[in-house]
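Title: Prediction job returns without error message
Component: structure pipeline
Severity: low
Priority: P3
Assignee: unassigned

Description:
Job completed but the reporter wants confirmation the result is attached to the right record. Sequence as submitted:
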Amino acid sequence: MKILVVDDNEDIRDLLRSMLESVGYTVTTAKGGMECLDLILKEKFDVVLLDITMPEFSGFDVVQKLNDSGKLSENNMLLFTAASIPDSEIEKWIKIGVKGCLRKPFDPGAMFEAIQNVSVV
């Protein structure tokens, strides 16, 4: 399974890459929203773990661009955030096609479960 991890924090990208590769996933990382979009347009990922709060081009910007171009439904997007974004905001994004949201810090088991749940849909 191919997973794209997108976060502006290098330590988080490295940690998630390590965790995911340790169970056999193939992981690509991106440090921002624009790089994420470029990668999604070039190759297919089974799941995209996307940080919401990034400078310049946020996770929400990525989701909006994909939605506007009709490509959101082609991608299993799981948002993650440390920000205190209300559940109503997350529900809005789920209604347009995001598969779920993990709040940092999250339990690795919950992350693996979320990945499995969206990848079989």
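Comment from assignee: result matches the submitted record. The two ends are 14 Å apart (CA to CA).
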